[in-house]
Amino acid sequence: MLSKASEVRILPPPKLNELKHPMKIFWIAIIVLLVLMAIGIIFITYVCADDWCFIFPWQKIQAVDSFERCAGLGFPVMESYPRQCRAGNKSFVEVIKPSQPPDNNSTNSGSSGINGYIHMGPICPVESYPPDSGCADRPYASATVVATNAAGKQYQGKTDADGKFRIAVPVGTYTVTTDQKNMYPRCGTQEAIVTIDKFTNVGISCDTGIR
Asked: Where does residue 192 rank: exposed (0-12), middle (13-18), buried (19+ CB within 10 A)?
């Protein structure tokens, strides 16, 4: 029989809930982390509208609502007139400030010549009814205008940002058109009869080729 001094004390095994306590903290931390990550992904993907949030191509496409925004986000720009930008299946046309044709009574005392206004259309691929003001014809800026008289002599000028031009020519009959180096825009031709000390006004329409 063992004496009290030599008795071995056997400790009871740890309780199960004591072993699970650190694991509970671990899994709670994991769950909290996953929830925070999910919230962050949802915010970046569906809520945030800043450029730095765009990590998927479809986010950029969804954010595009104008030509400027489309070009700014790096989508391809078609060098037509006016320019077009395509984002996915959405297409945006550059808006150019509309202008009114020149005054029909415009004269230049002591000289003669031709005043004109050149505009382009269609602007949108599909014409709507009633007409959309955003699809109205636009001025043809920086176009080279050529006025040719009966003898074949040519006089040239350029349109300004509003599509207007002014060429001083002698009295006579002229054929007025643009110097077309590309297929589009394709411009029509107008006849101008210039009389002494008067500027004759013409209007020329150009086809952009947009369909």
From this structure: buried
